Amino acid sequence: MTPPRLLFVNRFYHPDHSATAQILTDLAEALVAGGWEVGVIASRLRYDDPTMLLPARDCHAGVTIRRLWSSRFGRAGLLGRAVDYLSFYITAFFAILVTARSGDLVIVKTDPPLLSVVASAAVRLRGATLINWLQDLYPEIAAELGVGAMHGPLGRLFRCLRNASLHHARFNVAIGERMAERLVALGVAKSKVVVMPNWTDDTAIRPMEQVEVGLREEWGLGDNFVVAYSGNLGRAHEFETLLGAAKLLSLRKEIVFLMIGGGHESDRLAARVAEEGLTAQFQFRPYQSRSRLNETLAVANLHWLSLRPELEGLIVPSKFYGIAAAGRPVIAITNLDGEIARIVTRERCGLAIAPGDSAGLAAGISMMVGDPNLTARFGTAARDLLDREFTRDNIFERWVRLLRSV
């Protein structure tokens, strides 16, 4: 029997390099290679450059791409971002109506937030089947990050509409166990909740010996013990715990804190580092090209990631999978019962530190500096875990089984 056509909806897609675009591009192209007919509805925008317009019609690696008009205010202000979202909601609704056919599987991501609400209405009208692919949960995130309106009637309305779209969907794909628990707590039937982690390119990202990593020489890191953060450091994350640990370790000249990437909190961290007189301990580097991702992950002896405890189950720090692929240990500065904290504790591939415990973080870093064998064992355990449970091919096969089950 011919498999149903798949139609993915997300604001960004290839050649965009945002996280949601890369993950979606990987899966869509893998499904085409497996014999599925795949289309994508996206905007004409680039995440990092709203002034650039991509072609309205395109085909890449067998995936048919339809890119829609939307406003281009960008990420500078909340009002402009809201208008960008609204304009995409409108054009996406009509694009689904025009493009989807009865029996199609419409897989909707969460950029922009609450996209499932619009898609659910269009999918019902077309007699297609809805699958929500949840990278995060709004409006709860906005409420936790201090958007006051999300605590009032408007927030309740959004939650009601969002919940209706979750109930209507054939499946809701959560990217972590804690997120799945949140969905069930919202009243979504367990039979409609599937855990499907994100992934990394585990064939391109491999463990490397430090002597193989040219970036260490290029960036003047030498034989120092490098504690790195790679990617976006945004409002969902916190850096005060790390900054406090750096102050406690200020006399340990062999320890360097490396920040690769950007984000709202990255700029604030750089300012705080200067205020505290810690610039000799820190290096800040911009985002690197995807072709250098293996080196940017392998340049570190140890990586840290963070998530504000109130956001557990609403977001999953998926950068963990790239770190694990590089065979490096992880310190998760999160709720000790959080998604990544559970993993690193269970698999002994790093440490979990409660936000605010700068002394514990400093002690953990010191322990790894003083015990290279322990650091190596943590890194090996991380890669072993990835090879066992989280390879890209493994997750792709799980997606195929899910889609066939519909």
Description:
- The chain has 406 residues and is α/β, with parallel strands linked by helices.
- It has helices at residues 19-33, 78-99, 115-126, 140-144, 153-168, 177-185, 214-218, 240-248, 264-275, 293-298, 319-325, 339-347, 358-370, 372-389, 392-405, and strands at 6-9, 38-43, 57-60, 63-68, 105-108, 129-134, 171-174, 193-195, 225-232, 255-262, 282-285, 302-306, 330-333, 350-353.
- Helix 2 (78-99) runs parallel beside helix 3 and helix 11 crosses helix 14.
- The longest helix is centred in the first third of the chain and has 22 residues, at 78-99.
- It starts with 5 loop residues before the first strand and ends with a helix.
Q: Order of strands across the biggest sheet?
A: 3-4-2-1-5-6-7-8
Order of helices and strands: EHEEEHEHEHHEHEHEHEHEHEHEHEHHH
Outline type: globular
- What's the alpha carbon Rg, rounded to whole Å? 21 Å
The biggest sheet, with number of strands, parallel, antiparallel or mixed sense and barrel status, is: 8 strands, mixed
Q: Could you tell me how far the N terminus lies from the C terminus, measured between alpha carbons in angstroms? A: 13 Å
Mean pLDDT, to the nearest integer, reads 95
- Structural class computed from helices and strand pairing: alpha/beta
**Proportion of residues in β-strands:** 15-25%
Low-pLDDT regions: none
**In DSSP terms, counting alpha (H) and pi (I) runs of 4 or more, how many helices?**
15
Tell me how many strands there are: 14
Helix content: 40-55%
Question: Which features characterize this protein?
Answer:
14 strands; 406 residues; alpha/beta; 8-stranded mixed beta sheet; 15 helices
